[in-house]
Amino acid sequence: MDTDVVIAGAGPNGLLTACELALAGVRTVVLERSAEPESSRRANGLVGRVVEALDQRGLYERFGGRGAPRPVPYFQFGALGLDMTALEGNSLHALPIPQRRMELLLAERAAELGVEIRRGHEFVALRQCDDRVTVSVDAETGPYEVSARFLVGADGGHSPVRKACGIDFVGMTDRGSAGLSGRVVIPAQFAAPDTGELDIPGLGRLRPATFTRTETGLFAFGLFQPGVHLVSVVEWGAETAAREDWSWQPSTLDELAAAMHRVLGVDIPVTAPPEGPDVRRTTTTNSRQADRYRHGRVFLVGDAAHVQSAVGGPGLNLGMLDALNLGWKLAADVHGWAPPWLLDTYQAERHPVGERVIISSRAQMALLGPGPNVTALRHVFDELLRSPENVRHISDLMSGADTRYDSPHDRAPHDLAGRWMPDLHLRTATGPTRVAEVLRAGCPVLFELAGRDDLSAAASRWAGRVDVVTATTPQP
Questions:
Q1: HSE (CB half, 13 Å, CA atoms) of 286?
Q2: What pLDDT sits at residue 459?
């Protein structure tokens, strides 16, 4: 075989999968159709458990974070405020970072780990046999084949890998709205420099990174570079394309300004920044999920496995956690110590999570919609969100903290079994540390916190596969 694993797609999900495999000593080749890194706007940050996961791989600070991740005190669910200041153990984290920057940093990390990234090399077809998958590739130098133990499709919502496997992409396409987004300069008299808010006559103060809902649509904005705002507008019932098209379409600054006026009812003077406004139009919202994430030696991660509304920022949280779930399992199989059932747990664990995220995003879209019935529903929902218990439920839903993987071989599992490991502060023989810092090697870890030598002895048969860390913690 030419390599151990081939990954189709050099987006965040594919690159993080590659990093996980390389950490475990697995030879990995990434195929990317585009000759250059993606330059168009996509995601502008991360929301959810993935922020903590990056800390567990030493990537949080590289992505712009400082110290240990801290949860956000406020967020939104369907443009309704979530006040999490009173929650003990708030699980919702966020990290602003443009996707292009994210991909450059992940590619840099993958290269450090020895991953080969082949840009301008396009997946064309595949064929499988008992011990390998052979991938047909088209490149500028000509077509060729590469064989590997496994193929990972991280090639987006249109996923040629998924289509080549005949995997159904089940769900719905909503054409009841049209969106415009672009980079603009807003006059300084409308901006509050201390908070990042906009003070618009006739509207009052608008908060960044939150939706303003009207009966004609939605408006949101963020400040991702000094002096330049990214604004987004969604109009209900707007005329949309008759064909199914998930791509971003170019538009003009005048169209964006006109849409802002129709939604907000006031004029906000906007001009183009020096690099241009890069106005894009979307005409569909898709909620779809692959009916299976595995086809023999082929696995799907990220948008290749599921797509949903971007409201609440669930996409990369979901996809990058797919990558972390799959990576170590593929490595275990490549190294020969995985039990026969291990790879099947990827589908068993991640498919229900994807389904739940799609339900959450659809619920938020319903709360954002037009009409008096939705307005009434929002009033009731807003009352419910005054309860800390309900706020916790929603914040855990959005972060992925409510995920719990089954422990089928444990008749009486501990309450933490299958859940996210808390980032405990630890005292070890080498000094103070945190759980996240210990996990940065990407190796499974047994934390011996109870002073029981028998646990360390039991782990000795996994020497070389599981690290044992003896520590104490002041936290209960």
A1: 20
A2: 82
Give the number of other Cβ atoms within 10 Å of residue 148's Cβ: 22
Report the pLDDT averaged over residues 27-45. Answer: 86
CA distance 154 to 160: 10
Question: 314 and 251 in one domain?
Answer: no
Q: Are residues 226 and 91 in the same domain?
A: no
Among 291, 285, 290, 237, smallest CA distance to 262 is for 237
> What are the structure tokens assigned to 293, written together?
């994430």
Q: Phi and psi at residue 250, in whole multiples of 5°? A: -70, 150
pLDDT in tens, 97-127: 989 999 999 999 999 999 999 999 999 999 9
Beta carbons within 8 Å of 330's beta carbon, 6+ residues apart: 5, 21, 26, 149, 150, 152, 299, 343
DSSP designation for 185:
B
Q: What's the structural domain count of the chain?
A: 3
Q: Does 449 share its domain with 361? A: no
Question: Quick one: which of 172, 159, 408 has its CA closest to 299?
Answer: 159
What is the CA angle 297-299-303, rounded to 5? 160
Per residue in 214-226, pLDDT (tens digit) is 989 999 998 878 8
* Model confidence at 240: pLDDT above 50: no
Mean pLDDT for the chain overall: 91
- The residue range of the domain holding 219 is 176-283
As a dihedral over the C-alpha atoms of residue 178, residue 183, residue 185, residue 191, rounded to 10 degrees, the angle is 70
- Confidence band for 450, pLDDT divided at 50, 70 and 90: confident
Residue type, 384: L
Listed residues 365, 383, 413: the one ending a domain: 365
Rounded-to-integer distance, Cα 313 and Cα 248, Å: 17
DSSP string, 231-275: EEEEEET----SS---S-EE--HHHHHHHHHHHHSS----B--TT
Average pLDDT over residues 169-197: 87
| pLDDT band, very low/low/confident/very high, at 284 (cuts 50, 70, 90) | confident
Query: Residues 223, 228, 229, CA angle at the centre, nearest 5°?
Result: 50
Q: Would you give the DSSP letter of residue 356?
A: H
pLDDT for 332 beyond 90: yes
User: By the 8 A CB rule, do 279 and 255 touch?
Assistant: yes
- Report the C-alpha gap between 428 and 431 in whole angstroms: 5
* CB within 8 Å of 211: residues ≥ 6 apart: 76, 79, 218, 219, 220, 311, 368
pLDDT band at 189 (very low <50, low <70, confident <90, very high): confident
- Contact assessment for residue 302 and residue 322, using Cβ atoms and an 8 Å cutoff: yes
Concatenating the DSSP letter of every residue in 435-452 gives HHHHGGG---EEEE-S--
